[in-house]
Amino acid sequence: MYAMRRELNQYRQAGPIAEIAVADPHRLTQLLFEGALERIAVARGAMMQGNVPLKGQKITQAMDIIDGLRGALDLERGGELAANLDALYDYMTRRLVTGNARNEPEALEEVSTLLREIKAGWDAIPEQMRRAS
């Protein structure tokens, strides 16, 4: 039974790994947004169930992803948009820290809402513009 569970987990992990291997930079960014949102959702569930270790682990992972998005910004060429995103990603990280420390699901939901808004804009970039960059 343990072997079957291990193989099932390997199968589940293979899909995202295969997608990452062939994804263009635009899709990779989409995957980062999706990953952060998923981890925040799991953290929120863990918070509601009182599972402190899982909550902390998933919030930390979400913050790592947000830091990765922040680190990918080109502040020199990105102008005001990049600067605003940088400040927003910093704010999100601080809200996750506060939400974790105070067990505030509202803080996690706020960050999820912000991430979904940014992701929606990212998803709306026309295909021609994706290829141009």
From TrEMBL:
Keywords: Bacterial flagellum biogenesis, Cell projection, Chaperone, Cilium, Cytoplasm, Flagellum. Pfam families: FliS (PF02561). One of its GO terms (cellular component) is cytosol. One of its GO terms (biological process) is bacterial-type flagellum-dependent cell motility. It is found in: Cytoplasm, Cytosol. CDD domains: FliS. It comes from the Bacteria. Its main location: cytoplasm. Belongs to the FliS family. This is Flagellar secretion chaperone FliS. The gene is fliS.
